[in-house]
Amino acid sequence: MKKFKFYLMFLLVALMINTSFVQVFANNTNDVKVLEYSVKEKAKKEASVNLIKQGIVEKINKEISKYNAEYKSKILTDSEIQKMAILKTTKNEDVKYLSVNSVKPLLSSLSLDLGDKNPQGTNNISFDNFDTGDIILVHDGFCPYGYYRHAGIFDSSRYRGLDSRCFISTEWTPGVVLETPKLYRNYDEAVGLWIPLVSYTKKINIISYLSQQLGKPYNILSSKSNRNEWYCSKLPWAGYYDKGLDIDGDGGYWVKPVDIYNSNKTSPFAYGY
After folding, report:
1. Coil, strand, or helix at residue 156?
2. Residues 153/133, Cβ–Cβ less than 8 Å
3. Fewer C-beta neighbours within 10 Å, C or N terminus of the chain?
4. Has residue 124 got a pLDDT over 70?
5. Closest Cα to residue 217, out of 175, 259, 248?
6. Cβ neighbours of residue 127 closer than 8 Å, sequence gap 6 or more
7. What is the pLDDT of residues 151-191, one digit of tens each?
């Protein structure tokens, strides 16, 4: 009986020590991640200032203005997108047909490229300072919803290099997916955006929520309130919106990638061309 009590006490003490060790290890691991996050936040702040000093931000803004002026009659507005959504729901017609024939007759000679085709460009954006919750936007040729054609939000826990699937975004099929950094280098231009003064914990929670959307269907006409269908730029917007930050620059029906760039809550920290 004494021997049994001894073994029982031994097991209880061992369990307590082991539990304490696991807790300490977990706390230390989290502290390291928070420290790494703080270091990258500081690096991004410096990088953002440098992009301004080097005239890169001014260059981007001029290119966007030039694009908007050149394609003014061809860029879809939020009201036109909403009209397309209504027609799509009531008539169950194809999105491309509606956009060309029901909304913008001037697009009749063009194909409405919504990002389903492989991009043809190349850029040299660095992912060194990317961390959880950062957003990437890419430009490649003409796109009817604005200068930036595609968007993704970064998950640092999945990053192992250029071939790792660490950006949460969407494709026509199967919908919400994980994409590689290498994919985003296949565009003419790329910009990395960060949202300053948002805690590491909040950004982890954002990525956790968006990860739960993986596999859900793609619908470029889905409203902001529809959380069962997604398009690329709606994902980061929804993640931050649920944490009290609206990163839609114009507050319209649609969250276009360029709207996230134009938000006063986002700041460029990386650029490639």
Report:
1. helix
2. yes
3. N
4. yes
5. 175
6. 159, 162, 181, 192, 270
7. 999 999 999 999 999 999 999 888 999 999 999 999 999 99
Dist. CA 206–CA 201, nearest whole Å: 9
Report the distance separating Cα 198 and Cα 192, nearest Å: 16
- What CA–CA distance (Å, rounded) separates 144 from 249? 18
On whether the pTM is more than 0.70, the answer is yes
Token look-up 């920290």 returns 269
The mean predicted confidence, pLDDT, of the chain is 83
| Distance between start and end Cα atoms, the chain | 76
Report which of 132, 128, 136 is spatially closest to residue 156, judged by C-alpha positions: 132
Contact predicate 150/187, CB 8 Å:
yes
Which H helix or E strand runs over 31? helix 2-53
Query: Residue 119: helix, strand or coil by DSSP?
Result: coil
Picking from 271, 261, 40, 1, the residue whose alpha carbon sits closest to that of residue 151 is 261
According to DSSP, the residues that pair with 168 across neighbouring strands are: 153, 178
Q: How far is the CA of 171 from the CAs of 31, 151, 221, 223, in angstroms?
A: 35, 11, 14, 17
Task: Please enumerate, as own/partner, the contacts of 44-47 that have beta carbons within 8 Å and a separation of 24 or more.
Answer: 44/129, 44/131, 44/134, 44/194, 44/267, 44/269, 45/196, 45/269, 47/129, 47/269, 47/270
pLDDT confidence bin for 24, thresholds 50/70/90:
very low
Q: What is the largest CA-CA distance in the chain?
A: 91
pLDDT band for 103, please (50, 70, 90 cuts): very low
